[in-house]
Design goal:
422 residues, alpha/beta, Aspartate Aminotransferase, domain 1, Aspartate Aminotransferase, domain 2, seven-stranded mixed sheet, three-stranded antiparallel sheet, 13 helices, globular, binds pyridoxal-5'-phosphate
Amino acid sequence: MPEWSYQSDRIFCRVLSSAVLVLFVFFLKVMVNVTYLDASIRRFFPAVENMLYLDSAHQTPLAEPVKAELDRFYDASLQFAGPKCNWLNRIEEVRAQLAGFFGARPEEIAFTKNTSEGLNICANGVAWEPGDNVLLLESEHPNNAYAWLAKRDQGLEVRLVPADKEWADADTFATYIDDRTRAIAISHVMFHSGQRNDIEGIFASVQDRDISVVVDAMQSVGVIPFNVKDIGATALASGSHKGLLTPHGLGFMYTAEPMEELKPSYVSTAGVANARADLLATVDPIELQPNAHRFEIGNFNLPAIHALGGALTLLEQVGVANIEAHAYTLGDQLIEIADRLGIGLVGPREREHRAPHIYVLDVKDPEVASYFAEQNVRLSPVRDGLRVSFGVYSTPEDVESFGSLLHRALDAATLSTASTAI
Ligand SMILES: Cc1ncc(COP(=O)(O)O)c(C=O)c1O
């Protein structure tokens, strides 16, 4: 065998064995993550052992590592009264962690009370000219819709756009846009149908015009991996009690710089760049913080932000892409059961257009809430049907149990499907 051929065989063998090794490690990593999702993770959520919990789109039960952060905070308060400077240092660490979680920079993040506050900051931060218009889907979450509807008394026109297919994309808005359109405010994932709107496509279609895309990410963050720079949101708001696993009362808002156009309605020291060290407020002109920090007012929700740090660490360990894949698998299983039972799915069936974790079944029987409550199942009847939603703790057995309960209720005529809709 010629020397060159012998050499190239050896190189080929080495490349092949490295490739096998890389594949093996990758496979192992996937297996570890899947096992982690199925078993160890669930143990962090004791509430899901006390009931059949299918309501992550409403709120997520508290997880042990998140509670541990709360305990740590309250212990430090009990024993050492902080000190507050330590607590505030931790706030900045969590801010950076949160920013990194979806591809933002810490200066682009403001902590808020909830999604509504972030959306209202956007709706109230612009001096609208009479005749300006903003576009919303007519099925939009009310906390998004009201923020904008309330601005009509300043001459802002709110155009409610029908979603004539099961998800919204650039075409959905195209004919409603004109030269007075200033913003599109839209949920990434819709709470009432699980539809996943094409934020990236919508942003791409308007990025050359002076139109902002304001995203309500309450139902997507922590469940769908996204990079905010890639999807192209001008601003994004969310609360943290669903995918971000943190108790109610904490939210955040992202806005990309430059910020000149977006003004805070409320101002306190936190938002002022030229506040004096001796805390004396003078009549000098106020210089606002040049970034999203201008929207923060007063003291922070310290325990909740500390808890968010624990939640983010947990989510990073599991990996949001793994959570998404896990929820999609459970969703496929649920769709199969619904098909077998002859129950329609209200939102889209294709993975591309649906959230991984939210499924609305076409069951509108008025007895549905009390039936499932009696069976110790937590879920939410919503506008168009029965919403089942999964979390990182959900298992195929949960889906099976739900399917059996639904089957039994239909068989015994305790419940009926959409034909007897309310
Ligand atoms: C899309 C969407 N936006 C906002 C909210 C809640 O708003 P807030 O965080 O202000 O309570 C929900 C549900 O709770 C939601 O599903």
